[in-house]
């Protein structure tokens, strides 16, 4: 199993939802042996109810590890993000070298300002393709779009060019 970062990355709600809805949650585990889920993100997912596929998937695997964040750092509070993104970035800031997995543009900009390595759902697909875990990225991206992830055609074309598609 190829590991992209040490310590384990910390993930936000939307990548979990997109990957689960499109049936690609397993891609996370092909890239990382463990992924941290802040309590605030777990709470957001629990609000969808026990019948929700993301709720069920998170409960079913032992490599998604719920973690507690005692308080949101001032630097992250200044970014005015939602609670899940704030928790992800606070954890990553408190644990240098931790990659934040999130899709929200404001969250990604905040991560960049704070020097936190960040990767989105699309970046996970590209990494899986580059490491030989996927034969092609294009159909996975199409499935993620069908699952509700918004990506412009320009972004998709640029991403696919990076992996030779």
Describe the structure.
The chain is mostly helical and 165 residues long. 53% of the residues lie in helices and 8% in strands. It contains 10 helices and 5 strands; from the N terminus they run βααβααβααβαβααα. It has helices spanning 13-21, 25-31, 39-46, 53-60, 74-77, 83-94, 105-114, 121-130, 138-146, 153-162; strands at 10-11, 35-38, 64-67, 100-101, 118-119. The protein has a 3-stranded parallel β-sheet with strand order 1-4-5. It has a two-stranded parallel sheet with strand order 2-3. Strand 4 (100-101), helix 7 and strand 5 (118-119) form a beta-alpha-beta unit. Helix 1 packs across helix 4 and helix 2 (25-31) packs across helix 8 (121-130). The two termini are 24 Å apart.
How are the SSEs placed, and which strands pair?
Elements: E1 10-11, H1 13-21, H2 25-31, E2 35-38, H3 39-46, H4 53-60, E3 64-67, H5 74-77, H6 83-94, E4 100-101, H7 105-114, E5 118-119, H8 121-130, H9 138-146, H10 153-162
Parallel strand pairs: 1-4, 2-3, 4-5
Helix pairs in contact: 1-2, 1-4, 2-8, 3-6, 6-7
In percent, how helical is the residue content?
A: 40-55%
Distance between the first and last residues' Cα: 24 Å
Q: State Rg.
A: 15 Å
Main sheet properties:
3 strands, parallel
The tally of strands reads 5
The H-and-E topology, N to C, reads as EHHEHHEHHEHEHHH
Structural class: mainly alpha
Strand order of the largest sheet: 1-4-5
What fraction of residues sit in β-strands? 5-15%
Helix count? Answer: 10
Please state the average pLDDT score: 93
**Shape summary:** globular
Model regions low in confidence, pLDDT < 50 over at least 5 residues: 1-5
